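[audit] Reproducing an earlier prediction to check determinism. Same input, same settings, fresh worker. If the tokens differ from the archived copy the diff job will pick it up downstream; this log only records the rerun itself.
[audit] input (123 residues):
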Amino acid sequence: DVQLVESGGGSVQAGGSLILSCAASGYITSRYCIGWFRQAPGKEREGVAAIDSDARTRYADSVKGRFTISKDNTKNILYLQMNSLNSEDTAVYYCAADHNRGCMGWPTFEYDYTGQGTQVTVS
């Protein structure tokens, strides 16, 4: 059974930084497309970043240059380094995984597995 557990959310002032982590079960980070999406009140879900089984990355235009997605396959952990945060980044951030190893079609596909989410608030 695939499990994804996020951590690292919290409150930060505009211009600050946060690092989100996602602990994944099994060999998820090395064999799946894994990524982050966010959901803010009253807004559509937004794919933030993804990394495929070959460690190729994809980013939403809204976070390009500010966020960095990475993974540690030895620890099965996914990370999201978020810099220069602003109020528009306030949302619940979800870690997600999909059998689509190459993340083909990102960000429009529906992930197979999703974590419980972690709140990020920028004021």
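[audit] rerun output stored. Observation attached for the diff report: The chain has a mean pLDDT of 96.
[audit] end
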